[in-house]
Specification:
By secondary structure, this protein is of the alpha/beta class. It has 13 helices and 8 strands. The strands form 2 sheets. The protein has a 6-stranded mixed beta sheet, sandwiched between helices. The protein is globular and about 60 Å long.
Length: 381
Amino acid sequence: MAFFSRIVIHWKMTLFMFTITLIFSPSLSSASSTPKKFKKIYAFGDSYTDTGNTHSATGPSSFNYVSSPPYGRTFFHHPTNRYSDGRLVIDFVAESLSLPFLPPYRNPKADKTYGVNFAVAGSTAIRHRFFVRNNLTLNVTPQSLQTQLTWFNRFLESEGCKNSTTTPKQCEAVFSDALFWVGEIGANDYAYSFGSSVSPNTIQHLATTSLTGFLQVLLSKGAKYVVVQGLPPTGCLTLSMYLAPETDRDDMGCVGSVDKQSNLHNSIIQTKLDSFRKQFPQAVIIYADYWNAYSTVVKGANKYGFKELFKSCCGSGGGNYNFDVFNTCGSPSASSCSDPSQYINWDGVHLTEAMYKTMANLFLNGTFCKPPFSYLLAKKQ
């Protein structure tokens, strides 16, 4: 009996240790099943992806307190020039690949061994000069996707990569084992031209053409593993709800006209990605469906732990939206909620860490990447 008891105890301890391994081992989690699949990440986009290329003095003028508390309060416990209370989707992507957080390109002292983030808050898909020419520069930062491409080219030069023909080894070092993450871009183009004489159709044509042109350049340079995020349903953002009449609502309770615009933008991008897959068969091109992932959370908020769908956690004015465009998050008259994890919207335009984490999980482990992110990992040589 004593021998049998020892066997039972040993079996129980073994089962306990195996269970602990299943729970805590990162190598067994779905997003990290193949750590170090990628050695670096290059990211592009706007404030939803920017990890510090802008700060209060250089970012969009309506949200010019990003370098002040309570930005960063949840995870970093101090402002990091991220437009959120904590981490962004790109931060969770880096974590899932066992890589450090991406440093902003504009930080000359940053260690760029594991990649670089070129995303800029306020950035547009369309070149800045278009907005200047049409007198739409009231709240526009001068950076666009073209700026980010220029920065990327400078980075390539700093790594000794001129082109794949004359400097093949240097370029191979840059592009090999690299994930290219093209974050949400284009929402600012529509916002900056809202109410102007420039038609939404013109903006849509120029924005989608600029983005797809940018993607074609990346793929032509040698990008092999590319994830492209679509626009979220921007009609669900606090700012949109605050500005639009209550008669303009869709089945999610968001601003219908704005959501329709974002959805059509995404459809155009997806069609172009299909053609790129044929043009660049050696590349793996993934579409991250921000629109449907976000709308899934809005429609099933309780399941994901959210209680406030449209009200901003950090802002002023109270009421249904707690938003005042002249007294945004971080301003002297603004305050933040006690539990940001129950809110989708952080400051009226940008999301909480909890929402970014949910989006990242739906992209990396869910069904909102087309084809699935697991397919990209499996194809990684």
